[in-house]
Protein 1
Amino acid sequence: MTHEIAVIPGDGIGQEVVPAAVRVLRATDADLRFVEAEAGDAVAERTGDPLPNATREAVAAADATLLGAAGETAADVILPIRELVGSFANVRPARAYPGVDAVHPDTDLVIVRENTQGVYAGIESEIAPGVTTCTRVITEDASRQIAEFAFEYAAENGHDAVTVVHKANVMRTTDGLFREVAFEVGAEYDLAVEEVLMDAMATHLALDPTQYGVVLTPNLAGDVLSDLAAGLVGGLGLLPSANVGDDGAMFEPVHGTAPDIAGEGIANPAATILSAAMLLEHLGYDGEGARVRDAVETTLEDGPLTPDLGGEAFTDEVADAVIERL
Ligand code: ATP
């Protein structure tokens, strides 16, 4: 069965790293059909709309979407796309690759972050002049859905534990529910269920991230801790992410448009190629996904490397090397 992939390079270095990742996808044995679509600042300037209808339709029709980055219009692009695919899970692996200068070279963890609720539910108001409030939403259904996703992910990927991160000692009702449901779901799996308070987790990650594998978090905690984890493994050019939903999935590098280097052809394509590897695995091409990841790993170890990693190679040369190693 052919899978349809919506390809949205977006702005800045998205225009460079996404075509490189698509070349890698084409070099695999996966049966994929690519549909190019526009989003971001450039199309907004031309048409007034950062996410044209044709792009929405392409995302809705696709089995998965590969997105580069959007500049000023990022929120107008990414949030509606997450909604279109019904995304409830943000999956952000933070892995230190050999040959890359990482704070903690043995880090290999995945943050599974609930993607729709908490303080990001968007319920804020000014109830009186100078007095503002934000409503934190945690539901049993959404907590169950993300917990099932995290435990399933852990079981499928050979982990022996899931760490539930929360602040239920203070937010007793909301995080209390998140925690309770996570433990309930965890009891159905042959996996250890561990828990760490979110503030303590920040210290643990900085001191010794190697003790963690799959980390399940509510929305805001996951956002902050995954950026912390990114810092531990050597920077933005290497971090992939997935937004997984009921109606599809969207894969994107964690980095943005990098206007300082856009147009020079020197952006590191690794994060986007690793996002493409996650896309392959999501569609069931596990072997192809692993092959792509291995090829990226060998390339990071043996070169060529882009300037952000101390090399002199262009984006396309790195992609060529990955393809050769496939
Ligand atoms: P945006 O406003 O789109 O988020 P930004 O520059 O604020 O852009 P990033 O795009 O994430 O944020 O870039 C932060 C820094 O990391 C920049 O100096 C950029 O050059 C560098 N960087 C990010 N991604 C890459 C990459 N793929 N290859 C090389 N350098 C990168």
Note: DSSP finds eleven helices and twelve strands in the chain.
Protein 2
Amino acid sequence: MPKQKLGVNTICTHVGEIKDEQFKGAISPIYLSTSYEFDNVDVKRYPRYFNTPNQEHLVKKIAALEHAEDALVFGSGMAAISHLFLAFLQKGDHLVVQNTLYGGTRNFIKSELPKYGIEFTFTNGYQVSDFEAAIQPNTKLIHIETPSNPLLTITDIRAVADLAKSKGIVSSIDNTFASPINQNPIDFGIDLVMHSATKYLGGHSDILAGAVAGSKSHIERIWNVGINLGGSLSDFTVWMLERSMKTLALRVKEQNKNARKLAKFLAKNDKIAKVNYPGLKSHPQHKLAKQQMHDFGGMLSFELVKDIDAMAFLNQLQLIKSSMSLAGVESTMLLPSKTSHALLTPQEREAVGISNHLIRFSVGIEDFKDLRNDIKQALTKVKTETFA
Ligand code: PLP
């Protein structure tokens, strides 16, 4: 590997490759063994110890993309979050967590942390003052999500990281929506960056995985908990993820481009009441997003005008799939109130601004005009049906 600083496409393609010394193949071999020689070897390899050849190599790619010293991969994004939280929080500790975030994370915090005697506070908003107000003497971790799922709110990463540092608190971020191509939070002082690798890192809607990147000492702390919790990723999926990540930057750049154009198109349409996309000048944190993101991402959400039923609209789409999850090469839409945030009470959804009309749009790599035409035809049909 050359010594100079590598470009992002080169990192995606080559960093963390395993050289096939035996047959000189062009791609990384896959090592599925769960049993390795224990005598006369420095490293006692075992998949649950996050140290098989494929695991050890893939994390180099993730760490390089996140400007981190080290990383670990897990069996899911939730495994990454739970290992991170349980590594830095113990009985009597307190977590400060952003109120607008992925519903599964909120559910994990509310259902599981009390069992461990860990306290938590959801912030009132996503301004740094909201985080400051929630800190207690026993706060050990501050966790943010920006852009957030599904409202695309933007939190000031540097301000929160500085606040945490000034109080000796560890900070972490869910960087899933941005991907490392659009945002590198470690450059702004955040300690730990996690991903649902099921999303952009995998990118083809066929992998369930998670990742955390950070300093060697922070990652070691998670490793110590991880070998007990046992949430490592199977080597077959590790290999799939390495292959998928070769095209991460290419995919994400195309998704950014499509999302930017589609957000503008939707914002101009009189059947759309509201569009949430940090790349739009109308987004309340557009300036901040510009400062801390390389580009604005492939995720957006929008609300139809009140007299159009959101589900009826989704049912009219021919190309864009109504399906769960996000960040695949194919465009998808869903209703967060029925899916990612279904576990929240209606009051909780209302408090964070997730209405029953809100549609989350994960923009894929298809041609912009085909996506625009699909939305156009669905809007036309749904109007006829609603008002007929
Ligand atoms: N974080 C965000 C922002 C997500 O959207 C999701 C899943 O949708 C997760 C974490 C959890 O990831 P996983 O489903 O891979 O466990």
Note: Residues 249-387 form a domain with the Aspartate Aminotransferase, domain 1 fold (CATH 3.90.1150.10).
Protein 3
Amino acid sequence: MCGIVGYVGKNNNSLHVLIEGLKSLEYRGYDSAGVAINDNGKIKIIKSEGNISKLENKLNMDIKSNLGIGHTRWATHGKPCENNSHPHRVGKITLVHNGIIENYEKIKKYLIDCGYIFKTDTDTEIACALIDKIYNETNDKLLTMKKANEIIEGSFAFGIIFDDDMENIYTMRKDSPLIIALGENENYIASDVPAILKFTNKYILLEKDEYAIINEKEVKVYDNNLKEIEKQVNTYEGSMEVAMKNGYEHFMLKEINDEPKVILDTYKQFVNNDLSEIIDNMPDLSKYDNIDIVACGSAYHAGLVGKSLIEEYANIPVNVELASEYRYKKNFCNEKTLTILVSQSGETADTLAALRKAKNSNTDTLGIINVVSSSIARESDNVLYIKAGAEISVATTKAYSAQVLMLSLIAINKSIINGNISKDEAKDLLKDLKKLPDDIAGIIDRKEEFDKVAEQIYDNDDVFFLGRGIDYALSMEGSLKLKEISYIHSEAYAAGELKHGTISLIETKTPVIAIVTDDKIDEKTVSNIKEVKARGADVTLITTEELNKKYDKSDFYDRKIVVPSTNRFFQPLLTILPLQLLSYEVAKLRGESIDQPRNLAKSVTVE
Ligand code: M6R
């Protein structure tokens, strides 16, 4: 949520680096953007409503500058407009901010009493004024940051320029992520690694309550006692290509096409010749007799798939919670509970808070995370990395699928431990697992077939998704994907629940996407589909090759999409693809901004 980038360097390259960095961070927010640079000893600020290209149009890229900070915003306090966009400037301080200042009203009142006048609706301007006030009193920059940290409540990372020091960028963080990247005669700050990947892959992670001073030659990091500390320098392993479109029209489509490789890379961390290798290559799950899965959005939907599989095959109870609910409710975990936090970014504020709550209840925690060294990855007792690589499109696809795979592997692991999967079954599962990447690629190759279905539904105001059990969990993800990028109202319903109210919304031609892949309850779902069909719905059936044998000639659907059959652990990874591709095409036909849907941001680092 919001992206920060900063540059200080001998090559006087700040405008170029800031714009490139902000473009890579645009997935974190794109309501408005701005930069502040050292322009011959004076701060020059240029801001714009809208995305980075609008800002770029306002800039004279020939200006040479040794130092600058930039920001792309996802509005929290105050509407998205030029005035509210960052950088903010008060007195001698220019600043960019990621996060939310919770006690800003109290601080604002105090500062107004001290004579400060505010021009924006943001919490950030208050922080800027506070830092200015403290600096006027202390004349000590490090001490100023520490004192501001003691006063400000909430989550934040700041990039700060002091008017009397155009050689250094100052930075501090509480709960919002920040990295310091290291180049040759130039150094950088950023809220995420992709921002600096074009320039360097070496970086330092700034931790909570740490402060740093960065100039072209060196980086000094201080702890909360203002004692200088040594920091580990990390090297980003992923390639720049993963963060590029590679000829695809949108990141979303490129990322769907990454799925065969992502699935392979994810499972091969644990399994090679024998599925039981999974037990040795994953954290030991033997002691747990119940599991809590906590996550937000699509990661929560992945958790629901995991619940179905773990309960059915490992035979232990699984509780799936939205992180924003979990953090404020009574939980019943104990020392036999494993709490799994699922998050692509590893920075989602509610999931991070849920992790901390779980740790306070003395339950073991396991993160299923994509972004290496992110906050949830670092704070969890154990972490399993999905290998999705950089995911840029706000609508998650490949990371969701890798999360589902990881939870399926956990279900298999626990089922083997509990004696519910035999050796022969394990062999068959391994065969299917190895076939998955090709099966996925085969479905993606059929994109044109799904595009035709998209043509049938894109011009509607409401779409319904139906399914039972695991297919209901997939319906929820299909529905979120569609509404998130196409802005069509859509709802996912447990098929059996429809007649308890919602069926009244079904009219002639209402599009219904019905998912039927579970041969234990297919007939139940089919009878619900017949109920909507009888009321005029336009039904697209998504089913498996196996079940298609049974329903091939039926008349309860208008069209169908048939995906290959595999075992129940991996079927969701095939069934989800037409739903992802369908949403993509519907949004495209409607001319929407697919990778950057309105009002959203990729990582939600505020509550
Ligand atoms: O980074 P996370 O996996 O924690 O993010 C969770 C949700 O914000 C995310 O899945 C969101 O729902 C996606 N935009 C859905 O496509």
Note: Residues 3-240 form a domain with the Glutamine Phosphoribosylpyrophosphate, subunit 1, domain 1 fold (CATH 3.60.20.10).
Protein 4
Amino acid sequence: MSGQVPDSNEKDVNIAVEAAKKAFTSWSVTPAEERFRILNRIAELIDASLDDLALAETNDNGKPLWLSRKVDIPRASANFRFFATGIMHFATESHSMEDKAVNYTLRQPLGIVGCISPWNLPLYLFTWKIAPALAAGNCVIAKPSEVTPVTAFLLSKICQEAGLPPGVLNIVHGTGNITGEAIVKHPGIKAISFTGSTRAGERIAAIAAPKFKKLSLELGGKNPNIIFADCDWENMMRTSIQSSFSNQGEICLCGSRILVEESIYEKFKTEFVERTKALTVADPLEENTRQGAIVSKVHFDKIMRCIDTARQEGGRILCGGHSVRPEGRCANGYFIQPTVIEGLGPECHTNQEEVFGPVVTLQSFRTEDEALHLANATQYGLSATIWTQDISKANRVAAKVESGIIWINCWLLRDLRTPFGGMKSSGVGREGGWEALRFFTEAKNICVQL
Ligand code: NAD
């Protein structure tokens, strides 16, 4: 299946900003009830288009169709519904100075904001940025990944049908270095909300920081999955397979470094490898497929190079390590066997660099301190998972792991009200809940003498 998508340039971004400027005058003062009504309608229309959107997402990205239907598209409508209702409850602070004065904070929309998203969870992450920006009264210039643009295009039609006024949301398609940078550089765009690689995040920060733009950067991860001997074995094992390989390992929150207490290391290894080998790598449209296609040839080549590097570094490939050619219509697709590697130390390339594919490493530890040392031994700090039945140990370790998001005895359990984001090279700022509405508004303090 092939298609074409516009390759927009700076001029297109200028046109989008002009349209947004016109729309901002009325959208910024549109009552919250009306913004709620339109955004909620968008959510309803996304739900009504579930089949079409899920198929488009799978065709574009390669993920299993059941996953698009169960996770990606329902989350896109949930994002709109969540921030539509959120803006109805958004309140600002007041600080009383006894009988002298009262301060109150106005949180006003920033103006025109830029939202740039990646290809791994295309509509899910695109809407995660757009929905709070619109709810807060901003006009948006949004760019989906050039690798997976189709559901963003379909969303534009849904927004029109829902009655979102022209110019409020402007979806611009194109590449990162041309279209993306034109958005980041544009003086009329006040804030950039970006999700993607740490490399692109660095570039965006370098351009935007001297212009004093507000920045939210959600970047890469190399997340530890820390498994203590006293864990709930079955729950840990089932969830670790998901946290390693869901969406072909192309989720920023996947636990790509599995750290296992030495006393259970051999048992873990045997069972984990056995379950990994049982994952069906096949046509994403088939119901029993557990591993779909890698998103692109470029990314496929990158993952295969990472596996070669692991071999060269002395890693032992316990399973996987090769590409797969499924029978039928996907015979020429980009499929990779889920891969488990052991024998590599924390400092090697494979345990330092994000692969963003179906590749995990195993390392063992003896003590809690050693587990923490391994967990924190990368430049990244996005998420971590901790498995133990000892709740004191779990909380102790959680407080010391350098990650913005920690799951204890679970993974990817999401409450949209919680702060979402990473520390260290995994990003700056937090998304979700009030954090997102605060990011997309400018706080202004007004002091009234009594
Ligand atoms: P990417 O950085 O290549 O691209 C992401 C988006 O940014 C795309 O729309 C791209 O066109 C655009 N872009 C690229 N360079 C740009 C530039 N110089 N200026 C402006 N825009 C630019 O990332 P990707 O390959 O699409 O996605 C995978 C990466 O995203 C992984 O590193 C993954 O960890 C990360 N990610 C992070 C989170 C999170 O919440 N922290 C979530 C999902 C993905």
Note: Residues 187 and 211 are 8 Å apart (CA to CA).
